[in-house]
Amino acid sequence: MASKLVIEKSKIIENNRFLTENPILRYLTFSALYLVQGIPEGITYFAIPAWLAMNNKTPVEIASFVAVIGIPWSFKILIAPLMDRFTILSMGRKRPWVIFGQLGLIISFLAIGLVQDPLNNLNGLMISGFFISFFGAFQDVATDGMAIDIVPIKEQARSNGLMWGSKTIGTALSLVIGTTLINMLGFTTAISSLSIAVAFIILVPIFFRERPGEKLMPWTKGEPSKQSKNAQLKSWKQIFKSLLKIIILPSTIIMGVASLIIGLMYGLIDTLLPIFTIQELGWTNTSYSQAYSITTVAGGFFGMFVGGALVDFFGNKRMIIIYLIATIVLIGSLALLPEFWKNDKFIFVFIMLYYLFYTFLCIAIFAACMKLCWEVVAATQFTLFMALSNMGRASGSGLVGTLKDIMSWEYVLLCTAISPLLTILFIKLINFKKHRKSIEEFTIKY
């Protein structure tokens, strides 16, 4: 009897090391992986553009940098089918790709710190930033695909809250710390220092496993799980045939268009804010980074513990539409009240509320996209949604300089507010129940 209890206890302890068996480990692991995605994003999308604005680079130059580093995120749709088709199955369906992406992220993050005279070498800065985004996209696709494989549907909204909240906090902290270090120690030393944090997180995917019985490393003992074998697609024909089935469903098409449109808003706001606050309002890059970091850390914490719960309670569509309406009102208010722009508290409140709704909106949209995914091509389908969003984001970033050249900031902001308005029209057309029923029929036939 005693030996039986010991065996059962040892099995419980062993199972706690696998993502499929331990919800707490799932939450912690995916939160850590998203946290590390936020670190290079905080530097490339926010700290460097603010630093360039502080050093009198033009809106066109800054917008060009942001647009270039956004391009690899649009390539995720080319990466995802590779991950659905090839892997070291004995180590899990997506975990080997997570480790590979993390290694590339470490190397490319170190490389950007080696760019000589970056203020006068924007091409070198763009190339290094491009590769950071490329490997960041690699790790992102693998992490999202693994989350859809591993996380039960009932946990997806909560998991997305923790994941996106963690990324937001990572972005905010890396921005404020990176800006401080750049101003104090110089660009190269600052970036090299922050790369240590990126390197440390690689321990997370190295020491967990997706399912019981799998290998920790290629040279250790283990074998593919039955679930992974059944879900793994074995030919390109099978992948594209399965993908075609799911992407021609109406709700998939509608969500794809909505993702592209809302991505425009993300790119416009993220790029115009450092230029607007520093060059129009006279802020320093330090004051901008502090405002951004404080507000997004607050948004991240609320997102982690409230964002997912609200989606669970009220539903995806309802919460997405509420967040979009709030965002329209917020951006429209900033555009129509230029007399308050010199009031730092007013701008601070705008940034705080925008990134709060931004965080909540991302959590709700990501959960909705996951709900629309068919597990056999989950990485590719989810990545399609994210690639469209990032295409919109890159386009929005590139538009800032052009729009500012032909109109005032008031009209640039009003143009930005059109994006969430159009998104509402598409979100209202999505039918989750009908879509899930179609997926169940596909699965039976598969």
From TrEMBL:
GO terms for cellular component: membrane. Residues 26-435 form the Major facilitator superfamily (MFS) profile domain. It comes from the Bacteria. It is found in: Membrane. GO terms for molecular function: transmembrane transporter activity. The chain crosses the membrane at residues 27-50, 62-83, 95-116, 122-141, 162-184, 190-208, 243-269, 289-313, 320-341, 347-367, 372-391, 411-430. PROSITE patterns: MFS. Keywords: Membrane, Transmembrane, Transmembrane helix. SUPFAM superfamilies: MFS general substrate transporter. InterPro entries: AmpG_permease/AT-1 (IPR004752), MFS (IPR011701), MFS_dom (IPR020846), MFS_trans_sf (IPR036259). It is a multi-pass membrane protein. Its main location: membrane. This is PAT family beta-lactamase induction signal transducer AmpG. It comes from Lutibacter oceani.
